[in-house]
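Can anyone check this?
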Amino acid sequence: MRDKIKLNSFAVELRRDWDLNPYSPIDLFSIVLSKLPDLTILFYPMSDNTSGMCIKNINGIDLNELKEIEFSKGKLSNDMFICINSNMSKGRQRFTLAHELYHLLFEEDKRDLIICETSNDDDSEIEANIFASYLIMTYEGLERYAKTNNLTEWSLEEIIRAEQYFQISHHAMLFRLREHEFISLEECKELRSVQIGYNARINGFSDSLYVPSTKSEKYFSLGKYIRSVEKAFNDNKISPGKRDELLLDAFRSDLTYKFF
């Protein structure tokens, strides 16, 4: 199993490759879609035990609906798919995206399809979780944040402020604070039980980081699939009806009915 130093170095190197400051918060979804043009992200409600999944090589997966995309035939080998459980909080969804990136970009596992369950504690999942935590908030980033804000004690208000700054989930933040020995094990257990959304609101922040997707976002998609459908339509390779059908399959009725 790769150690934490190595996993943090992967996170820092990826940020560097993407021209990102290793200390600052990042808009992960926007950055990933910009830097990985062959990636499609699908948001979909899953069971409580499943955080997400990824497909490294679509050619190795038997998905009948994808076989209908004739215009992509012969070009699927570079395509990557990440599916995220939209029933989980926005903070957890960001964490899941970073987690799946580890499987896609750094892991040596040769499986084409990886389903990530929250109860799975094998080395692969542990490594992906640690990497995700460091990508969202690097070791150096948290240390610098604590230093520049003169934090010697971490109250709930200060923890929420840091979570909002880094856009990291409450549980992931507590895990990191415990790892850096900024809080004790007893404090960590106590802070896990707070009503984090309510406490964020009474401290003047939005609770959007701590709640699941809205109804309109439960089924949604972003990335290459959308562009591929539109390009095929513009190149007269598919009919208007087929375009709408493919976009509806990807939960993008806003593009078929031209909602604004």
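Reply from J.R.: I decoded it. The chain is about 50% helix and 10% strand.
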